[in-house]
Amino acid sequence: MNRRVVITGMGVAAPNGVGLTAFSEALKTGKSGIKFQPELERLKFRCQIAGNPEIPEEMLKDYFSDLELRGLNSSGIVYGVISGVDAWKDAGLPVGPDAKTDWDSGIIFGTGILGVDKFREAIHLIDDKNTRRLGSTSVIQTMASGISAYLNSKLACGNQVTTNSSACTTGTEAILMAAERIRLGKANRILAGSCSDSGPYVWGGFDAMRILPHKYNDNPEAASRPMSASAAGFVPGSGAGALVLEDLESALERGAKIYAEVLGGHINSGGQRNGGSMTAPNSEGVVRCIKNAIFDAGVQAAEIDSINGHITATGMDATEIKNWSEALDLKKDDFPLINSLKGLTGHCLSAAGSIESIASVLQISDDFVFGNINCEDLHPEIENIAGRKKVPQKTLYRKVSTVAKASFGFGDVNAVVIFGKFQS
Amino acid sequence: METKEIIYCLKKIVKPYVQNDLAFQDFGQGTDFIKDLEINSANLVDIVLDVEDEFNIAIDNDSMDNMTTVNDAVRIIKSKQQQA
Predict the structure, then answer these.
(1) CB B46 to CB A70 under 8 A?
(2) CATH 3.90.230.10 describes domain B3-83
(3) Looking at the complex, does the CB of residue A61 fall below 8 Å from at least one CB of chain B?
């Protein structure tokens, strides 16, 4: 079986916009969600800025019962449930106690780590010999699959319900895993997405690795500089994104709106050899991943209108562009337009792949290519390969039919997905 | 503390966990937390913690296991208050 897979719903909780409308507007206008974080200053972090979705207290009541809100201390669950429930509703699917188990619907919702703040609470109680005071939700808020479990208490899916984890490729991997299952006819629709907790206990390790920018604490919006000569490290972020992937036939039968089609993709690893390591990708693996994704999608390199890269704003940005150029066998005027969301949101870690995929799909459904901020000083190597015209600094409004989206993660893991405009 | 007063406090504590609102209207000494109110058994530990906080007592594991009805809860709370 090789069924076509389309996207019929989306929801997002991003640092620069919560909800599709706000996020889409932020993309088009270049609104940054990166802010100074007093808590990181208090804790004496080098990097005291980050991107968090802003969720008003009142909004939580629309997504969680009073009982669920008691002792809820897992930001990943908050972001994930908001984006997942929004996506499901956007697709016109039932949410809440009246929804009946649907054996053809599933959830693949990834995370890197879940409920670190809840886990910290538990650690303090346990160390105080007070384990009995943990309460009943310590496990479900901190197990990795807690996010799919919380979501399913609202969506009632009866197909596979799971959580994947592959560092910063997590969200993109979830989409490809879901697409594959639907293609094979094992499910009709799957909520695919990912979330990432926010806060010092998630970001501390990266600060210790000295890979976060530390000279922008008083100028947060200028800190994340993908593809610039002055890129000084990635700004930590968090949030969640969710997409409803659906078998084309089922989507047409339901009369659902279709944002785009998942044409194909590829997932691989560079094996941590040949320049690949725990923290850097083997370029050969990246090139293969891009080539195989394009082959799987059945498109030609020249058909790609726009690339949404992984591009975190480090010294590796130029290497990524080189890999794209080699894999597509295109450069300069023939090279596609390219952008990185991380200039606006920071690096949302395990949520990056899903949030950035939503940005990619919106570009197709609304016909635009969002502009890159903070790269007025384009990296000379990138200028050499792609040319300045291909790295727009302002949003371009033009027809977008095919977008290639890549995510790479610690452990030398890669995922590339190809989205296309839906044509019957 | 009077039984009536304890039951009044218990009713307030239990309210957010209740899944059978009809049975909750008849909340009284004979009410069973799981059978009548259909409270998720995992939430019983949360109720015990809330009771400890409200009445400023500590409920040991054996007492916890035996607290399935309002009557049990009243008995345990009274005996712990006397010990305190």
Answers:
(1) yes
(2) no
(3) no
Bridge partner list, A397: A368
Query: Thinking of the domain A5-260, which architecture would CATH place it in?
Result: 3-Layer(aba) Sandwich (3.40)
Q: Which of A315, A328, A314 is nearest to A286 (CA)?
A: A328
Mean pLDDT, contiguous 10-residue spans, chain A (424 residues): 95 98 98 98 98 97 94 97 98 96 98 98 97 95 98 98 98 98 98 98 97 97 98 98 98 98 98 96 98 98 98 97 98 97 98 98 98 98 97 98 98 98 94
Reported ipTM: the value is 0.86
Q: Find the residue in A nearest to B53 (Cα).
A: A133
Using a CB-CB cut-off of 8 Å, the residues of chain B touching A71 are 46
**What's the farthest any 2 CA atoms get from each other in chain A?**
66
| Active-site annotation of A, residues | 168, 310, 347
Q: Do A66 and B46 touch (CB under 8 A)?
A: no
| DSSP sequence for B9-39 | HHHHHHGGG-S-HHHHHT-STT-BTTTTT--
Domain ranges of chain B: 3-83
* A347-374 tens-digit pLDDT: 999 999 999 999 999 999 999 999 999 9
B44 CA: distance to closest CA in chain A (Å): 8
Torsion over CA: A265, A298, A107, A198 (sign)? positive
Rounded-to-integer distance, Cα A270 and Cα B5, Å: 67
- With a CB-CB cutoff of 8 Å, which residues 121-180 of chain A face chain B? 132-133, 135-137
Is B17 in Cβ contact with A135 (below 8 Å)? no
- Whether residue B42 lies within 8 A of chain A, CB to CB, comes out as yes
Task: Please report how many Cα atoms fall inside a 13 Å half-sphere around the Cα of residue A275, on the Cβ side.
Answer: 8
Q: Tell me the per-residue pLDDT of A325-354, one tens digit each, with 9 for 90 and over.
A: 999 999 999 999 999 999 999 999 999 999
* CATH classification number, A264-421, choose in 1.10.3720.10, 3.30.1440.10, 3.40.47.10, 3.40.50.2000: 3.40.47.10
Q: Distance between CA atoms of B62 and B80, rounded to whole angstroms?
A: 13
CB contact under 8 A, B46 and A135: yes
Burial readout A336-357 (b: 16 or more C-beta within 10 A, e: otherwise) = bbbbbbbbbbbbbbbbbbbbbb
Q: Which of B43, B63, B64, B67 to mutate to test the interface with A (most CBs of A within 10 A)?
A: B43
A338 is written with which tokens?
């390219």
Report yes or no on whether pTM surpasses 0.80.
yes
Inform me whether the pLDDT recorded for B65 exceeds 90. no
Q: Are A290 and A415 in contact (CB under 8 A)?
A: no
B45 contacts chain A (CB < 8 A): yes
Whether the Cβ atoms of residue A251 and residue A90 lie closer than 8 Å to each other: no
